[in-house]
Backbone:
């Protein structure tokens, strides 16, 4: 039988609120927002994808990109930040077409191709 263990919080609620507020201060250019929108949109039009990522994926990708930039010590998001977090944010949201799966295609491969095809803002 499982025993009840002690959980020690690593952050207080006010600390967490401050961190969330700080992430909101990380700058994202309009061009980078458009890049994120295009990446997510392409998951819905790709021939190998039956069901692509929705609008919440766009929001999640932007939030994760901001967090990644903050972890790198920057106050702005770069395209590399978006690419770094795209797989864990989007992969599980993609449902491939059965014929694509039978051919051995994986959602991670589709997403990687999309990331290479969508023009990166400069």
Residues:
């Amino acid at each position: 039988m499982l025993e009840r263990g002690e959980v020690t919080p690593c952050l207080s609620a006010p600390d967490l609120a401050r961190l969330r507020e700080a992430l909101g201060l990380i700058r994202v250019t309009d061009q980078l927002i458009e890049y994120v929108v295009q990446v997510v949109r392409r998951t819905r039009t790709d021939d190998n994808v039956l069901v692509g990522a929705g609008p919440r994926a766009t929001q999640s990708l932007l939030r994760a990109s901001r967090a990644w930039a903050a972890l790198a010590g920057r106050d702005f998001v770069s395209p590399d930040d978006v690419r770094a977090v795209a797989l864990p944010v989007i992969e599980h949201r993609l449902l491939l077409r059965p014929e694509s799966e039978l051919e051995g295609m994986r959602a991670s491969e589709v997403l990687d191709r999309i990331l290479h095809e969508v023009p990166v803002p400069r």
Remarks:
- The longest helix spans residues 55-71.
